[in-house]
Structure formats: C-alpha cells, structure tokens
Amino acid sequence: MTSLLIIAVLVLLGIAIWQLTKIFHLTQLGAATGDENTEVANDKDNNVNGYLMFAFVGFIYIFTIYSLIKWGHLVLGTPASEHGAQYDTLMSISMWLIFTVQTITQFLLHFFSFKYRGSKDRKAYYLADNDKLEFIWTIIPVIVLTVLILYGLYAWNDIMFVDDEKEEALYVEVYAKQFGWEVRYPGEDGELGKANVRYIKGVNTMGVDMSDPNAQDDITATELHLPKGRKVVFQFRSQDVLHSAYFPHFRAQMNVVPGMVTQFAFTPILTTEEMRDDTDIVTKVSNINSIRSKKSAELIAKGESALDPYEFDYLLLCNKICGASHYNMQMKVVVDEEADFNTWLEDKKTLGATVKGTEEEAKEEVEVLEVLPPAPMDTIVETEEMIIIDSTKVEEVVAKH
First vs last Cα of the chain: how many Å apart? Predict the structure, then answer.
C-alpha cells in the first residue's frame, strides 16, 4: 500500500511540474520583442546546440576512459575452464569492435551536428538516396555479424559437444530451488537415476525416483566438487521458478527451467588452490580484505564483531531474479585434483543407504511408541502428560520422514 501511495505522489508531482512548465511557457510568449519568436530557433540557438553536441561527445570519451581506469580491474581475469580462453577471445573481439565503431560513429554524428548546424544564410541540400552509401553501410555490418555469429556457433558447438566414446565425462545434476542449490553425482554405475518433483519426500529433497535401480547409488551434496582436467556435464532442474546457473570464473551459464532438463558442459583446468595463487585473484582478495578491514574497524568501534578475512572460492550463483532471497542463492564450488575428488566422493553416503537408514530409524521409533507401557490411571495429570509426549513424538516422526 505504501508503494502505491509513493507512486501516486510521484505521478501527481510530475503532472504538477508539467503544468507549471506549460504556464511558464505561455507567460513568455508575450515577452518576445521585435521579430523574436520563441517557437523558431535562431542562429544563437543553433550555435549553442552545436557546441553542446561537441561538448557531449567529449563527455562520452572522457567518461569512457575514466570508467576503464576506475572499474577496469573488476573484470574476472584468468578463466578456470578449458573453453574460457576461447570465450574471452570472442568477448574481446566483440567489445573492441563495439568500442571502435562507437568511437567513430559518435564522433561523426556529433561533429556533423556541429558543422552543419542551422543558419539563416545556409540552405539545406536534399539528397533522396545514394545506392553506394546504402550498400556500404549495409554490407559491412552483414559481413562483420556473419563472422561473429559463425565464430560464436563454432565456439558453442566446441564447448557443448561431448564424445562419450573418447572422453569419460562426469555427469552431475544441479538442482535449483528457492533459494539454494543441491547436487547429485552418479555412483559406481556412472548413471544418474530418474527424478521428478513428485517424489520429493523427507531426505529425498531432489525428488529422485528410488524405484530406479540407477538411483540407489547416487550421491547428493550441498557443495559442488569438480575434478580438474575432466569434462563435467551438468544437467539442471528447477523445483519451482526459473533460475539461471552462473559459474562466472568458468565462463558458463545456463537457464534452469521448471519441468525440463537443460544441459551445459565444461572442463575445469585450475584447482581452487591454484586459482587462489593467481596474480589477479591475489590482488582482488587483497583489495577486498582492505575494504573489510576498514569496515571491521568501524564495527569494533561500535562494540560489534569484526568481519572474517575473505578467502577466494569458486561460486555457483543464480543469475535470474527469482524472489526475495535471490541475492543470497549461491553454492561453494571446489575444484580438486582427480584423486582428491574421488576420495571426497567415496566418503559420501549413497542416497539409497540414506533413505533406507531413515526409513529404518522411523520404523524403530514407531515400534518404540507402540510398546510404551500404558499410562498410570491414578493420576490424571500424568496421563495427560503422557498423551502430550506421545503425540509430540508421533508428529516429530511424521514430520521427519
């Protein structure tokens, strides 16, 4: 309600300003002297606007240079995936083309606006068309865009193509829900079991079909570990709304759509420890900790706890505005050497064993409730307490399982 009131006030304020502007404009019409007419631009108006156009193009260039100096260090730096270098090359080509064309065209646009500004002594020359010019400014963009699109398609096919006969790819399911991520790895059979949101129950939070034999040895986790140098094929599912799985340092992003499985693949080439030693990352971490140190000093002065030092980690982020806590929807990603990854995975309990253990635990708790001795009848208070305790246990078991 407050938001609607604020919007209404802003709209009314805008209307009021617009009406005041019209009134001011009408009051100025009678103040014109001689041959002056405020509705027609004179040489003075044209000169002012011509110089303003030239000044504006200078502002564009100055601000562009300032932005590169001020925020240029915020780029991601070294790519951590095999295709990352190719992706960065394509991005660099696109940005340099845009920068070059923008610099030239903006200069010509504002220069000609200044040079050929209106003058009472100048007569405009009308040119209906020029086939040669039309051909030039049509064919050049066509050629450039064709090259970029073909290069982009080649890069995309090279990234997404997986030859299961030549490379032993690791298939991993990434499951999105408001507002977090879960992952599922295949077990010894190397295949992920079927899944559907209808099967979500208890510890089976990803909706895995436990009747599927391939699902029994699947392994679930809340932290994504990847083996260095091995192709990983990600299969994405969403429980609720549209999300977007974004791996910034791996130059990878894929929409996560409810009701369907989307897929993306890449090969990690730098472990987490190796990335932490990267020069760009060391500089970024140092800058972040410098900011956190200043903030910690302010917090300590207020009697609050200081911030912990920042340490670099790969992250999986959501790049779609999916709700109130979208900003906090992230998961830690760890890239290990192959041996360390296998050790980490072997220590995990299979989903089948987890579900079975939970069912047995629930069954034992129910059996305990069934063999509880009858409550003494001589004290009503004790009987009521026993009933309350027993019903609470039953509710806890039902809620847990």
Answer: 41
